[in-house]
Design a protein that fits this description.
The chain is mainly α. It has a single domain, classed as MetI-like (MetI-like fold, Orthogonal Bundle), CATH 1.10.3720. The chain is about 70% helix and about 0% strand. The chain is built from 14 helices and no strands. α4 (about 75-105) runs antiparallel to α10 (about 200-215) and α5 packs across α7. The radius of gyration is 24 Å and the shape is globular. About 30% of the residues are buried.
Length: about 280
């Protein structure tokens, strides 16, 4: 049912695994390495078809400086912050409450309500594109940061509820029963007993949702346009001119856009791993 640990396999397989692991890692990181190399090349290298060779001159400082001084990248980054942070706060806050209700209370329609939360995650984005866009237009939320935030919260709450509900169901129910016997109200049980125990799950979920929303491109293009509301994933395309694309600046902008979620993961790595593995072993 589970794969055999590498330590229990034959010596030949262990050596093969150790030899193939660096190759697989390089193959996995090859696109990122390519973008990083492109970001320090001059524009002439792309004109001369020097795509995979060494840079004819190192222009890393110039390219990254132009990203911030000769484009609207700072505004796009700020838009991403204004979109991602409220979405994470809203989705996590709602899912802790819905997860508590669906994980603690037992009522007849519990499973059907939970099914409705989860079912939305299986609907392809392309099917929702037209109705969601029309809805935002009718509500006056098209091409606005609040509109994108509200949509992301609504769409991410289903996955977050699934995550939180399963986590809460793994908590010792005896703590809640003991609190009820002592006459503690339900909202105090949630706030003072359950919520502190959910901190690892909240940290792990926050990292996941932050990464999902920050890297979102599909809905950023569908629901926003222009520098006033577009996040950085859509704003990178502004380096495309009418007849020519600034690939060196686009690559530098991509590296800059990828840094915040990577930094957050490393900062929250300890809590992220604890949240995913809590309850895996007794």
């Amino acid at each position: 049912m589970f794969p055999t640990p590498i330590e229990r396999t034959s010596r030949t397989w262990q050596i093969s695994y150790q030899a193939l692991l660096p190759f697989a890692l390089i193959l996995w990181l090859l696109p990122l390495i390519g973008v990083a190399v492109f970001s320090v090349k001059p524009a002439a290298d792309f004109t001369n078809a020097n795509y995979w060779g060494l840079p004819s001159s190192f222009e890393g400082f110039t390219n990254y400086a132009l990203v911030f001084t000769a484009s609207d990248m700072p505004r796009y980054l700020l838009n991403s912050v204004f979109i991602t942070v409220p979405t994470v706060l809203g989705a996590v806050a709602l899912s802790t409450m819905t997860g508590f209700a669906l994980g603690i209370y037992k009522f007849r329609s519990n499973i059907w309500i939970f099914f409705m939360f989860v079912a939305g995650n299986f609907v392809p984005f392309q099917i929702l594109m037209v109705p969601v866009r029309e809805l935002t237009l009718n509500m006056g939320l098209y091409n606005t940061i609040p509109g994108l935030v509200l949509f992301h919260i609504a769409f991410q709450t289903g996955f977050c509820t699934l995550f939180m509900r399963n986590f809460i169901r793994a908590l010792p129910f005896e703590l809640i029963e003991a609190a009820r016997v002592e006459g503690v109200s339900e909202w105090r049980i949630f706030w003072y007993i359950v919520l502190p125990l959910m901190k690892p799950a909240i940290a792990a979920l926050s990292v996941l949702i932050f990464t999902f929303i920050w890297n979102d491109y599909f809905w950023a293009v569908v629901l926003t346009q222009g520098v006033e509301s577009q996040p950085v994933t859509a704003g990178i395309t502004s380096f495309n001119a009418q007849y020519r694309a600034a690939y060196h600046l686009m690559s530098a902008g991509s590296i800059v856009a990828a840094l915040p979620p990577v930094a957050m993961f490393f900062l929250m790595q300890k809590h992220f791993i604890a949240g995913l593995t809590l309850g895996a072993v007794k």
